[in-house]
Amino acid sequence: MHELAQHARQQLGLHLTRSQLSALSLYERELIDWNTHFNLTAIHDPREIRIKHFLDSLTCLMALRDNPIDRLIDVGTGAGFPGIPIKIIYPKMQLTLVESVGKKADFCRHVATILDLKKVEVIQERVEVLGQNPSYREQFDWAVARAVAILPVLVEYLLPLVRVGGRVLAMKGESGPAEAHSAERAMSLLGGHLRQLLPVTLPGVAEERYLVIVGKVAATPDRYPRKVGLPTKRPL
Description:
Radius of gyration: 17 Å
Number of helices: 11
Shape: globular
CATH topology: Rossmann fold
Order of helices and strands: HHHHEHEHEHEHEHHEEH
Number of domains: 1
Structural class: alpha/beta
Number of strands: 7
């Protein structure tokens, strides 16, 4: 974990405390253990977990740290990325994790329990359904997602969940700028506006990465998100 702490300090100006490193270490052990029984993630090597899961998740702080972060929803979280590492840094925020695969949702609940993380809700549901549920629609300061869908689809998943004045953060690879351009019409229809494209580098990872930040400037029309499967089938 020393190397992770070093990279977090150098790249993000983030000083991980002993208790935060201890939580990440336990998280790593549980991930490796569960991965022997269930296919939670393709990454098994501890060093790769620290860089490609933990440090990658923590790069979100480049965008999050300057804005209100009381309620955050992580859609398609898988084994808890980026939501749980962010929660370890911001323990007081309300975190909602959305994952449609049962074993992955179970793992997220398990990690939240063993790390004694308060105010964490794990929902096994399709995001199109949540976006039409008044308990979740336009309730969040931030909606984040990593490797879930192309951006024109992703903004239809995420923008309905964010309050006006809130933001969407999409973690993208080298296609980030092109996807942001192709999603501008969808953003506009959904009440969003492209605010920022932040380049991200990870040690030992050649591929370019980007944080795409979309501001919510107007309420999302009631008809969005459309029914399950439609955003993917017919992107805006």
